[in-house]
Amino acid sequence: MSIANKLENISRRDLFRVAGRFGMSSTLLAAGSFGGAMSLANLASAAESSYDKRYAKEPKFTFKFGAAGFNERNLLIERAGCLEFARDLESRTDGEIRVEFIGDNQICGQTSCVEKTQQGIVEIYAASTQNSAGGAPYLNVLDYAYMFPSRAAQYHFLYSPESQKLLRDPYEKRHGLKFLFSHCELRGIQMGLKWQDAPTITKLEEMFGTKNRVTGTQLGRIAMKALNLNPVPVAWEETLDGLKQGLIDGAETWASAVAYANMSPVVSQSVDLKFFCGTEHTAMSASAFDSLGGELQDAVMESSYLAQVHVQAANEAALVNTVGASNPQAPNTIFAQNNVRVATLAEDQIKMAEEMCSPEFQPQLWEDWRERLNGWSGGHDTYQEIYDIARQIPKDTLAENVEPRRWWKA
Length: 410
Description:
CATH architecture of the largest domain: 3-Layer(aba) Sandwich
Number of domains: 2
Structural class: alpha/beta
CATH topology of the largest domain: D-Maltodextrin-Binding Protein, domain 2
Number of strands: 13
Radius of gyration: 21 Å
CATH class of the largest domain: Alpha Beta
Strand order of the largest sheet: 8-7-9-6-10-13
Helix content: 40-55%
CATH superfamily of the largest domain: Bacterial extracellular solute-binding protein, family 7
């Protein structure tokens, strides 16, 4: 039973009353580990037990985890692994590391969490790599158009030891942040209510000329301009209103982001364009990591690995069973309840989009950023090398079947 189901009879006000007494982290970790339906009394008792266990001894390190807009409910829609990581790290270190989870945009948002981690306001953060690219531009390395053919390819790359030299090491060296783990989806265009009565989109050209929200990614804008999708920078927190009021036609993001952000009521069609990464990652201040002894550093890495494996399986299941990002849709999913149609484009349409915007077919569009990222990486051909790794597995590999590996071990 999910936390969402366990808590369905508990109001947000009551949840915050319990959290006010025992702390939000203790309350959320308790809810996640409780079996069966949960009443307010059950939750309070479990939170007290969690609190007593977590505070049984003084930790050597207390880390603030700024989790943007995530909370106990929406982390069961988009399975980003934040709470699983925190719970396992505290348990694995026998309380020597304590993690204070701060979500609901209370301490940082999608675009500011990266900077607040660099400033030392928080030690760990979760946000999309695309929204974080404003403060950590090397994250653009994930956003070359059509570099990843599938979610399986994304997971395969993150598990690959090659991700150290192509993603993790340059990210840490340039921005002082340690990339721990990430959820994986591919971005599409989420059409607003203007498209509610229109036929389901089947052709790329049907979206030409539309005006669409874009994140902080510079590379995503290159692809959208090439596809005649008119990128308009809109803060994540303002995207829902923009779609509701018709100020934009659509938004580039991924399916579970629409669902977790309660955007489904203002989205009519989820166009599965798959044109670049949607990666809700968790990262840690490198200086905070370096302050740990060897055993605790090992624990952070092992908890990151556990979270990555959890996310890989859980998010694939949630896409079908919770979000409804499938054709046909499962009944009672978020998309089904809000009449969000999944517009699956045929292979010839995906190929057309790839030929219009990808570095393979339109290299001149990417020259400046490719040269910049290659330099930051230490001289690697970032696009080609990641592209090749992403194709080491068969194209039809299911994401849940990708072999997990400890990427920091050769």
